[in-house]
Amino acid sequence: MSLIHPGLLLGILLATIPVILHFLLRSKPKKLIFPALALLQRRKIQNSQRLKLRHIWLLLLRILIIVAIVLALTRPSLPPANYSFSTYELVMFCSIIVLAVLAYLGLMRHYQKQRISQQSLNTRRTFLRGGIGGAAFLLIALLVLWPYQRRVFAEISAPLPAVSENIPVTAIFLFDTSLSMDYRQENQSRLEQAQSIAEEHLSNLPAQSRVSILNSSSEDISPFQSDLTAVKSRLKSLKTSAWSLYLDDRLRTAINRQEDDFKRSQNERQSSGSQSAGSDQFVREIYIYTDLARTAWRSQPSQLIQQQLEKLKWLGIYVIDVGVTSPQNIGISHLDLSRESITLGNSVSIKAEITSTGITASDTFLELYTQNEKGQLIKRDQRPLSTVASPDDAPATENVTTGAKPGPQLEMSLPNVDQPVTQGELRITSSDPYLPDDVRYFTITARPPPKILIVSPDASSARLWNDALAPRPLVALKRTAISVRSPPSTRSKHSLWKNMPPST
Q: Are 354 and 361 in contact (CB under 8 A)?
């Protein structure tokens, strides 16, 4: 058999195409996961994540327990320091714990309102515990542990001298008794508050303590007294004074007192042959009770005090601030008289400068009073402070000494001064807490006009000089006929000789 186109026999290979299509297009069984098994697989994944997180927390807890047991068995010797938590650290620790618990309860309540499955709720609760626990730990490490380690390290690196609570104290109480201590708050002056604090401190001093009371209004040096009842009596007798020494100078006096007493005590112990002659039997301290007013201190710090304190390491100095953070005051800062000595019947101009701090001058008046012959005060004038503006040329700056802002300048006139000595006062009608600068006193002396004797050869020349020196509407003229050779009257203080002819 012969084929016309034998090459087409290769087309038989195309018969394999249906075979290939048969295998490719044949149906295959589908793999379907049973819904119950799918739920179990998802819960398995969630449970495994929760278990891993719990295992991590359990691992950390076991590590901490083992480390604590090892440290307890080794019994480490720690340097002396205050290892207990301070009030700030305890409050901060409790606040972080409370905030963490409230955040956890709030979020869990939010999740429960979403009506999710119990498995999802458990998963979210696990991650919520881990997240809030980690955040709380970071906050505790940052706000509690970090300040705690810094404080303990500072006490270890620079420890304070160990002082027993039963060691008697030799203390000096230095009180600022300047007028600024009369500022009242809560119906109590600054000096009264300082006295109450000092009295409470006296009650807590150990037995056999000695105390000396100093103040800035006197240069007296009070001896050390062991009778604290007598010290309290002296303490209550302190009063403010317009005259006051700088607290820097009084502090130097107190330091010298402590140094001299320390040397005397050392000499007595050495002479008695005591084995502890090099140590002091007292804790020596100086307490300064002040409102920290700048007027009570020198403008430049004293280098001598600093040098003394560098040498006397055993001396402790404490400043008790009884001042007010935001004071309120209005007062008379300066009083100026046009003349302090005048002739009878003339007038005097009185100028007052008003300063205010934290208070306005509304409904406040400046009153002028003078005393009559019986010593009674009589009101002579009154000016409202709110109607007078500050002078244009006054600098708009604060007073460096008192911190008060310059206020208005008021000028009052006191006419017809007819007393030889006139005493008066300017008074501000205000109820501010600081009273000493609400009143300023002044004294004016008045004398009769001096007598002038005019001697002239003719009446017209004498009349001209009389009109020039004392016009008739202003004075009472008295004429006396005298001889040329007569000497001037001994009662006259001044003599004027005009165009007199030579005597014969």
A: yes
